[in-house]
Amino acid sequence: MRNKAKDIFTGNEGFKEFIKGNAAYVDKTGLIHDLFSKSSGPFSLSRPRRFGKTLLLDTIQHIAAGNRDLFAGLEISNRKYDWTPYAVIRLSMSVPDYTPAKFEEDLLDVIKVRAIRHGLTLDAKSPGTAINELITKVSVKHMEHMASRQKNDMGPESDPKNVVLLIDECDFPLNANIRDPKALASINDTLYKFYSSVKGGADMLRFTFLAGITEFLFRRMFSGLNDDTEISLNPAYSTICGFTVEEIRSVFKHHMEPTLKILKANTEMEPDATEDDLMAKLLFWYDGYSWDGATKVLNPYSVMSLFKTATFDDHWYNTGASRLTSRLEPDDIDYFSLFSENLSFESRYSVTDVHTPDTESLLMQAGYLTISNITGTGKNRTYHLKIPNNEIFDAARTELLARAVAPPNSAKPMKFINGMYIRLLESFASLDAAESQNLLGSIYSGVPQHSSKGEDEYFYRGLLQLLLGFGNNQSLPEDPSDIGRADLAVQTPKGDWIVMEIKHEKAADGGDRKSQQNKARVLKRLNVNINAAFSQILARNYGRKYLGGSAKVYAAAIAIHGTSDVMVRFARLSRDPTSLAYSLEDIARDPNTTRLWPPNVRTVSVRAWEAHPYPPPEIEGVRGL
Question: What is the CA radius of gyration of the chain?
Fold first, then answer.
């Protein structure tokens, strides 16, 4: 008789619900035991949203409360642990109003409500004095309870350090005000006093654990604690949130076959695909997160959503992506640079002032980037970053397109982007220079009106890379040859290649752009740059490495003048087998030209981008000469 697959929980279920509901649970209790056995902390952990921090706190709460019966068969049951019950105070900093005017008042209310749940009332008038009073009264009450049990031979004697303090979303108020220096200063001052008061109750605290998203923001407010132990980048706890490959194979082994069967039926996987193929695709989509540059984990929410829905999608990004990015200004994030794998920050504590958050480290904390490698030692470490997996790669491209291409106030921005992107793909697929240049002129025309990068060739190359990179095509920026680098090389699903060189020059000042004289001058400059692009492709051997096989290799020369005057020309790269001459052949003289992409290109996933206030102005038809 086959074992039945356990239920999959992807909501707000707690540890008890997982165990009592016979749900698939990835056991992290061994790591929790390691933490609990080391010291009283306080420990702090940062991980992206929906990565299991709240479930982790809930598990710690049940361990601290001595609920041994819930942990039968889990790792901690095999460890030496006496299951002494402690009093647990659990708070969340996601207060109703995180504005400076009401934050202190609402935080005080949160603490007083927690006191009521412990059967206590508080006299304190500030959050700092309230948390200290709550710790003291909870400790006294627990000691009295344990003394009563001891008197009746019902339990062990109470430890003077008998309170466990757990704080979830401890950086929420700061994240909510990331673009407001005055609000950050005010809220940070309140939190500093609050955590300093927590330190005042250290003689009663057996264990303290704080969880949030951005370690680089809440480090400063933790300075009131002095002895906090940050485990966010500690290799010993790199897998405390997220799933390893071994954990997936063990916990979800009975979900693999039924999930694969549905994926095959829905044509998301080939008919002869195996469970190993499913695992490979699962790793491609959701693996790659690392907080030590070596050990990798998969996104837990996306993995569970895959087994629950039997579909590959941007599960985490659609529901759990951090709200940090929506609070950053458009030019705070260079989305094109996310694909370069050259991002880094030079110190774990490179951000010591919450007023000047470091964008790269924030994106890492939010889940857009992950640590690929760590070089150097101590305070001289450099953390190298990259996009972790296909889910984030796909989502980041879509976010860029929504910000850079969709018209303002569009009711269906992604429908607009789908149409534009599919038309552009088809124009390149059929090597239609006229249609390609008209579409690119229309797309590029809005750039300088919403971005400071409108006069940067790098921007145009990056946007083209994103547009042509959809449809599961391989797009390679800065594609190297033996003596140079092509701006972009794109491999089509058929295996053919288009090697591109982009030439951009700023529009000259003065004169009426629509005058015949000016049009003629711009047209001349575009032709000059088209010839320069083709000459560079030949001179520097761009695309030559792709010749010799069955794949066809094409060259695309793209000239941009200003922001909306665009010229595109295609040619086929060839190599004479006798003379080994390397040449370009005008595409119009190639009778064997066929579509490079199949007509059924995929549609970009629809997302709610209406909230973004900064797309370009409405595009009024095709712009250009």
Answer: 29
What is the pLDDT of the chain when averaged over all its residues?
Answer: 79
Token pair for 461: 């190359």
pLDDT band at residue 315 using 50, 70 and 90 as cut-offs: very high
- Element (DSSP H or E) covering residue 327: helix 324-327
CA gap 246, 239 in Å, rounded: 11
Q: Are strands 205-212 and 163-168 parallel, antiparallel or unpaired?
A: parallel
Question: Does residue 174 contact residue 214 with C-beta atoms inside 8 Å?
Answer: yes
Determine which of 45-49, 134-138, 412-416, 538-542 has the lowest per-residue pLDDT on average: 412-416
For the entire predicted model, the pTM comes to: 0.76
DSSP 440-485: HHHHHTTGGGT-TTTT-HHHHHHHHHHHHHTTT-EEEEEEE-SS-E
580: left (phi over 0), alpha (psi -120 to 50) or beta: left
Q: Give Cβ neighbours of residue 273 (< 8 Å, ≥ 6 apart).
A: 260, 263, 264
Among 504, 499, 503, residue whose Cα is nearest residue 488: 499
Calculated CA dihedral for residues 540, 546, 549, 554, nearest 10 degrees: -80
How would you class 458 by CB atoms within 10 Å of its CB: exposed for 0-12, middle for 13-18, buried for 19 or more?
Answer: middle
Alpha carbon 442 to chain centroid, angstroms: 30
Helix/strand/coil for 563: coil
Give dist(CA 570, CA 554) in Å, integer: 7
Contact 163, 204 (CB under 8 A): yes
452 band by pLDDT with thresholds 50, 70 and 90: very low
Question: CB-based contacts of 551: which residues, under 8 Å, 6+ apart?
Answer: 494, 495, 496, 497
Could you count the other beta carbons within 10 Å of the beta carbon of residue 476? Answer: 16
Contact 408, 618 (CB under 8 A): yes
| Distance between CA atoms of residues 360 and 350, nearest Å | 11
Contact 122, 115 (CB under 8 A): yes
8-state DSSP, 143: H
**Phi and psi torsions of 151, nearest 5°:** -60, -35
Q: How far apart are CA 172 and CA 133, in angstroms?
A: 23
Q: How far apart are CA 34 and CA 51, in angstroms?
A: 20
The number of C-alpha atoms within 13 Å of 619 and in the hemisphere containing its C-beta is 26
Residue 108 near residue 127 (C-beta atoms within 8 A): yes
Q: Are 192 and 174 in contact (CB under 8 A)?
A: no
* 436: CB partners within 8 A, 6+ apart: 424, 427, 428, 568
Q: Taking residues 503-525, what's their average pLDDT? A: 71
d(CA 355, CA 182): 9
What is the strand order of the sheet 382-386 is part of? 343-345, 382-386, 370-375
Extract the tokens encoding 135. 């710790």
